[in-house]
Design goal:
alpha/beta; 509 residues; seven-stranded antiparallel sheet; globular; seven-stranded mixed sheet; 13 helices
Length: 509
């Protein structure tokens, strides 16, 4: 029997954050992960995170994972159990786990459960054909093992995962035939939607998939407009489902924590307080296990659970506990769905969510309204940044990246504003923006973010396209700035006629 102060189940962002928080108090910590490496979903997230500098905004998930793993490996009081699965919890507080094929017993004083979530499926005809994948599986194949799932993909679901994986598929050279969304509005961040639209990927809102076509594998799909019932056949060899996540709660059920079905949080979640304590003494939860949210919230919840469990053992209260609670509230200010779910747990009862404005065409297609675009264009004839970020989301790295303080926001969830008198058109904000929503326009050129290979060279002729990926003209690359984090900056010459619509390039083979 091995004794620990805190035992953590799950080596993803929430579990690692809990372990690091507890390690500050010199407590003896055990961190269990059933896979061969720590990091959870972060190890396949090649996109940049939103939020603020304190939450690693503007940094890719894979780099956040590496930093967290390095931090854990540098702690002598954290024992990491990889390839190890926690199987049981007993009334006397003993935990059993399969550690590299051998059953072992552990006796912790506190337990933090951060087992994450699993993907929801979708009922439609032939949904068991080979070629129907979950988005997590596609990300694992591509970003962990370097294997393409197919050549032509139909994405189902326009939440952040569906939009991000569609973009990553396009980066890998896969043709994304479209994104199907049953709601009338796009579910994910609209900057992600605009990003995939610039690649020429259509988004079919108010549509659903009704059938996968094929005998032995996927050869196509039938989608249907839910209002008009008009059907459309799309050829593809992969159907990728990004239709939501459900908390993974097997061990929590075994422990007999009180559970509650809350659809806004993904399904059955453990009842817990604002310190992440469940209804069973000494049992804490964090991350998607406690309710589906973004990875940033998972890391904050993990840190909170680790700190509060440590406080109960040491009687040392860390003021960071209250800071995290306030930070979580800041992140949730525009998330009515999550807050609605938390209120059903008797949390956030007096909390008011900032209402999200209906952004019309942008919400339904990923393309901004003409009036919104024109409002961004200053009258001054000079080099300046264009910020095409119209939705209130928790994100502000553009503000801190500006060397002249030309960009400001009222709050973390505000809309960035540009003072054109201060803007020098340096492009720092273009490179740091996680949504690739900022461009620099000059008299005869546009500076664009570019995350594809091959990179063009200075002097090359490229195709200049608009916000829907439609060809505008061929023109010359004026400058290429290779950036360390791979969001490279391409400055391309553009005719005056197209200067306000040129938003992406295609390298001419």
């Amino acid at each position: 029997m091995k004794n620990y102060d805190i035992l953590i189940i799950g080596g993803g962002p929430a579990g690692i954050s809990a372990a690091l928080a507890a390690s500050k108090f010199n407590l003896k910590v055990a961190l269990f992960e059933e896979k061969e490496t720590l990091g959870g979903q972060l190890v396949k997230q090649t996109h940049k995170f939103f939020g603020s500098k304190d939450e690693s905004a503007g940094t890719r998930g894979i780099f956040i994972a590496q930093k967290l793993i390095n931090d854990v490996n540098n702690k002598d009081n954290i024992d990491v159990y990889l390839n190890s699965m926690v199987l049981g919890y007993y009334e006397d507080g003993v935990v059993t786990a399969l550690v590299k094929g051998k059953m072992e017993k552990f006796k912790p004083k506190k337990i933090v459960i951060a087992t994450g979530a699993f993907e929801k499926s979708l009922p439609f005809e032939n949904n068991d054909l080979p070629g129907v994948f979950g988005a997590g599986a596609v990300q694992t194949l591509m970003n962990v093992y370097g294997v393409l799932p197919g050549k032509e993909v139909l994405m189902v679901g326009s939440g952040n995962i569906g939009l991000i994986v569609s973009y990553q598929l396009a980066q890998a050279g896969v043709k994304v035939k479209g994104i199907v969304e049953i709601s009338e509005k796009i579910g994910g961040y609209l900057v992600h939607a605009s990003k995939v639209r610039r690649l020429g990927i259509p988004i079919y809102t108010k549509h659903t998939i009704t059938k996968a076509i094929g005998e032995n594998k996927v050869e196509g799909a039938i989608i249907e407009n839910i209002e008009t019932k008009e059907k459309k056949q799309i050829s593809c060899d992969v159907i990728c489902l990004a239709t939501g996540l459900m908390p993974l709660s097997d061990i929590i059920n075994q422990i007999n924590c009180e559970m509650k079905y809350i659809s806004e949080l993904g399904g059955y979640v453990p009842v817990h307080d604002d310190n992440m304590k469940t209804t069973v003494e000494n049992i804490f939860v964090a991350g998607d296990t406690a309710g589906i949210e973004e990875a940033t919230a998972a890391m904050l919840e993990g840190e909170l659970a680790g700190l509060y469990a440590s406080y109960e053992l040491t009687n040392i209260f860390d003021n960071r506990i209250n800071e995290i609670k306030e930070r979580l509230k800041e992140f949730r200010k525009t998330s009515s769905k999550v807050v609605s779910g938390l209120k059903k747990l008797n949390l956030y009862n007096d909390f008011t969510v900032n209402s999200q404005e209906d952004l019309g065409k942008l919400h339904r297609t990923g393309i901004p309204e003409k009036e919104s675009i024109e409002s961004n264009i200053p009258k001054e004839n000079k080099r300046f940044a264009i910020i095409e970020c119209y939705q209130k989301i928790p994100c502000n790295p553009c503000v801190s990246s500006c060397p002249t303080n030309a960009i400001s926001m009222d709050s973390l969830n505000g809309i960035p504003k540009l003072d054109t008198n201060k803007c020098i058109g340096c492009g720092n904000c273009v490179a740091i923006c996680p949504g690739l929503a900022i461009f620099v326009v000059d008299k005869e050129s546009v500076l664009l973010p570019y995350e594809f290979l091959p990179l063009p060279n200075k002097g090359d002729i490229v195709e200049v396209v608009d916000r829907e990926g439609k060809f505008l003209e061929k023109n010359i690359v004026l400058n290429v700035r290779k950036m360390k984090d791979k969001t490279n900056l391409i400055e391309v010459k553009v005719s005056k006629e197209h200067i306000n619509n040129a938003r992406h390039i295609r390298v001419v083979k």
